[in-house]
Structure formats: C-alpha cells, structure tokens
Design goal:
single chain
Length: 119
C-alpha cells in the first residue's frame, strides 16, 4: 500500500533543501528581512517534511486516523505557511503572506493530532 505521507514528505523535503540552497546562495533581495522570511519558510518546510515522513511510524501505520489527520495538517500547513513565506520573500511584499497564519495553525494541528489522537 502507498504511504502518501512518505511520498509527499520526501518530495517536500527535497524541495525544501533546494529552496534553502537558493535562499542561502541565490537570493538577491534588497531587504534582509525578506531573506529571513524566505529562510524561515525553508526551515519549517524541512522540519515538517521530516515529520510527515515519520508520521506513519509514529501513528502505527499510514491509514490510522492519527496519521491521516496529522499528515493532512502537516501537508496543508507547509503549503500555506512555507508557501506564503516564499512568496513574501521573493516578491518583497507582505501582502503575499495572508495564508501564513492558516498554514501555521494547520502545522499546529498536525502536532496536536500526533499528541491527542489514538491510532
């Protein structure tokens, strides 16, 4: 059976390494605040990609309720939070950060699912 958390987490982890390398070596922003925002997105994406890959092992299988909820929250959270951080950094405009709070709450939901949901 396909462990979607492992696949999505692995792809997301690879993307986050690439984004981190770009942030460290290729980012040419005018304001260092925007570079820091971009790097925050990369750091959170890498951390939560690793958690997404580990979620089935932590939850006793990829099909458990806890794994499904945590995995969905981590996936949507990375997209919303890290995606917003990347856009804010690249465009140097905070108006692109509107999804960041929702993404952050989704990441928190993933952690809470790991802590509170039974298998």
């Amino acid at each position: 059976e396909m462990e979607w958390q492992r696949i999505i987490g692995g792809i997301s982890g690879a993307i986050s390494v690439g984004m981190g390398a770009y942030g460290a070596h290729g980012f040419k922003g005018k304001d260092p605040v925007y570079k820091a925002t971009f790097e925050t997105g990369s750091r959170y994406q890498l951390l939560h990609s690793a958690m997404l890959v580990a979620t089935p092992a932590i939850c006793g299988g990829h099909a458990t309720l806890a794994a499904q909820v945590a995995g969905t929250c981590f996936s949507l959270g990375m997209l919303g939070f890290s995606g917003s951080c990347y856009m804010v950094g690249l465009k140097e405009d905070r108006k692109y950060g509107k999804l960041a709070p929702y993404g952050g709450f989704s990441l928190m939901g993933g952690w809470l699912a790991l802590a509170l949901l039974r298998k």
